[in-house]
Write a structure and sequence with these properties.
about 550 residues; mainly alpha; two-stranded antiparallel sheet; about 5% strand; globular
């Protein structure tokens, strides 16, 4: 991407307005979107949030899938709540009381009905549960059915409350939203990452193909969804329990109309869909893939904000027994990339403080205190593509600066602190979740891919058998992942002292052994190594 394209990415002509006035500081959101975050199990939650968007739009009108590609087409959806189903799977402790008690089948049903009715939580009335007695011949069959679904729950050993627990999305009724204790939608576990991923795909050049691919995937899941429908009354199947959109909901926001990350993500998703894997297998790859691409989006956007082009080098150590130049390069590479976000915040805000509107106030013949008040009023405006940032102080008394310079320093310092708590965690948090980032064997974080991450790369990027050298060149050109010596030599970010050939040759040897052990590579008698995707059918 050349400098003109870089300007297009971050220039006002490529930005979208935000339709509401934010409640507090709006800097990270104006650069990367609202609200990309990372915390424990973000990868699972963001994928489930993405599926809840897709399921909702598919249910309403499948023709609208991935059509949210402009500022005039804001994302609005009404995801499933499925409170009854979730009570049956996750709020059903009474089920344990009758498994080893010498009661008749009829007595077990009666006592379970009574106990479940007492523990049931919902904003709606408990339906007549007699339909369950008709669908399951024996009570023990009902128990086995519930146990089966509990076994495929995500994070089964976690202490998370039942309203935030999920099963693996075997069908559309499992694609529901996160709920708070009052059984309304909340954004503690569903950060908005899933919505951002959906918007990225919608703004790609491949939205039509994605629509077809996901419609096919959801249609296939209908058969397995009967496992869930068996627990629901007919009325709930015909009129699903959904979370209505609220006027107070802050809409999703992705700042850029065009971005290289959109097509890169879409192409990888389509590459996976083209394998025609069973939906569960496909989902297992999509979870880390989404996290990986959010990391790339974050890094590339950060660099564009400081007029750098493309992605910086991501030097991957295939874990060595001791410190070598590859590990040093990986540590340095991670540290450099990890600082890009805060540098972007500082660079953009420094330029922003030189805007004409602010200069006019600074040139006005008024006291410094009055200048601060007038500048603060500017920052309470709703952000637009021409006025990107906001600091909506709740009370005028919150302003402690005596001069404009103090105000700017305070804004910048607060923005940096907010960045560390907000989007700044994406690189580390989602990097760990997708298997790219690790601290194994070191005190510092570096890029040290796991087997699952390497498997994902092979499945996504390799179709026909491919020479290892071509594979390494491909993942460098596409993601700037550096594993071999040739790619290290091409990278301007790596110090010359870290580019010695022998350490990188050993790094490639370790990769070859790892791929061979996973059945993803084969070393031929002539010494040439080929990478193979066992899921690709010629």
């Amino acid at each position: 991407m050349d400098n003109s394209e870089n300007y297009l990415m971050t220039g006002s002509e490529n930005l979208l307005d935000f339709p509401l006035k934010p409640r507090s500081m709006w800097v990270d959101e104006g650069i990367w979107g609202h609200r990309i975050r990372s915390s424990s199990s973000t990868g699972n939650f963001q994928f489930l949030e993405f599926l809840s968007v897709v399921e909702s739009l598919f249910r309403q009108n499948s023709a609208t899938l991935f059509s949210h590609n402009s500022q005039n087409n804001n994302l609005s959806y009404e995801p499933l709540k499925n409170v009854l189903l979730r009570n049956l799977i996750f709020n059903n402790a009474v089920l344990n009381r009758f498994e080893n008690i010498g009661l008749t089948d009829e007595e077990k049903w009666g006592k379970w009905f009574e106990g479940f009715s007492e523990s049931f939580q919902s904003t709606n009335q408990l339906p007549d549960l007699a339909y369950l007695r008709k669908r399951f011949v024996k009570f023990e069959h009902f128990v086995e059915h519930i146990r089966l679904l509990q076994r495929i729950s995500l994070d089964p050993n976690s202490n998370i409350r039942w309203t935030s627990r999920f099963i693996f999305p075997i069908g559309m009724d499992a694609m529901y939203t996160d709920l708070g204790e009052d059984l309304t939608r909340e954004a503690i576990n569903f950060k908005r990452n899933g919505e951002i991923i959906y918007l990225m795909l919608s703004r790609s050049s491949f939205a039509t193909a994605l629509r077809t691919g996901f419609i096919d995937l959801l249609n296939v899941s209908k058969e397995k969804n009967r496992l869930l429908e068996r627990l629901l009354p007919e009325d709930a199947i015909q009129n699903p329990d959904i979370a209505k959109a609220s006027a107070g909901n802050i809409p999703s926001y992705l700042p850029y109309i065009k971005h290289p990350a959109y097509d890169r993500l879409a192409e990888d998703v389509l590459s996976l869909l083209d394998l025609n894997l069973p939906d569960q297998d496909c989902f297992e790859f999509l979870i880390p893939l989404f996290s990986f691409h959010l990391v790339l989006y974050y890094l590339e956007t950060s660099r564009a904000c400081t007029s750098k082009t493309g992605l910086g080098s991501i030097v991957c150590e295939i874990v060595a027994p001791r410190l070598d130049q590859v590990r040093q390069a990986s540590l340095a590479s991670f540290a450099d990339n990890d600082s890009e976000g805060v540098i972007a915040v500082e660079s953009l805000l420094t330029d922003f403080f030189d805007r004409a509107e602010i200069k006019d106030i600074l040139d006005a013949q008024i006291s410094p205190i009055d200048q601060v008040v007038d500048i603060a009023k500017l920052f309470t405006r709703a952000p637009t593509k021409d006025w990107r940032f906001c600091w909506n102080l709740e009370k005028p008394g919150d302003i402690t600066a005596n001069t404009p310079q103090e105000f700017f320093r305070g804004f910048l310092n607060d923005a940096k602190l907010e960045h560390k708590k907000k989007t700044g965690e994406i690189h580390r948090g989602l990097g760990k979740e997708c298997g790219l980032v690790s601290s194994r064997g070191t005190r510092g974080l570096r890029y040290a891919p796991t087997d699952d991450f390497l498997r994902m790369l092979v499945v996504i990027r390799v179709k026909k058998r491919q020479e290892l050298t071509k594979f390494l060149s491909d993942i460098y050109n596409r993601y700037h992942l550096v594993i071999g010596h040739k790619e290290a030599q091409r990278s301007a970010e790596i110090q010359d002292s870290h580019k010695a050939e022998n350490p990188f040759r050993k790094n490639v040897d370790r990769l070859t052994r790892r791929l061979e052990n996973m059945g993803l590579a084969r070393r031929m008698s002539d010494g040439c190594t080929y990478v193979e995707n066992p899921l690709y059918e010629m």
